[in-house]
Please model this.
Amino acid sequence: QKEVEQNSGPLSVPEGAIASLNCTYSDRVSQSFFWYRQYSGKSPELIMSIYSNGDKEDGRFTAQLNKASQYVSLLIRDSQPSDSATYLCAVLSGGSNYKLTFGKGTLLTVNP
Amino acid sequence: GAGVSQSPSNKVTEKGKDVELRCDPISGHTALYWYRQSLGQGLEFLIYFQGNSAPDKSGLPSDRFSAERTGGSVSTLTIQRTQQEDSAVYLCASSLHIGGNYGYTFGSGTRLTVV
Model:
């Protein structure tokens, strides 16, 4: 059973701080990794993807991947109240398993 | 279309009735996925379609659930003899190609309530 684990939170940070969201996965042959943001009552939206070890930056968001440790993270710099949402980690396994496996998500609250 | 369209947005049905949920993917997206999300739970994979290949039905929870995709475009998820535990938000997503390397685009979902 391929698993994706996230701390359910809630993670509470003050406005302007860095929010750090973490995710571990069990399938060593996983090849692609995604972060989705889901506002309450809404559907998930893709915010970041990462495929190689290291960091990938996009605006205030940085995704970090360490395949040896089976660990992926999302950093949100200068957090804003509008960043308050549930963040879902998703992993695409290798081989012929073409579906994404999602973690249960981490609820982030950014306090003004 | 510009996005993934799902209908109805809300459905209340009596236990034991059949329901059909519809998904219209983004034009040109060859892969289509169905997930469901129960309150406070993560996304549970149900089924995916890729072009004319046989669908991966490995996530369907019982034989009361079925899905089809006609003409490589619109998909319908059917739940027969609904039970209260079927209550959830059913999300459809599409992707440019299978494998998800382009990420999925989700529809707004169908909230199913079985009473």
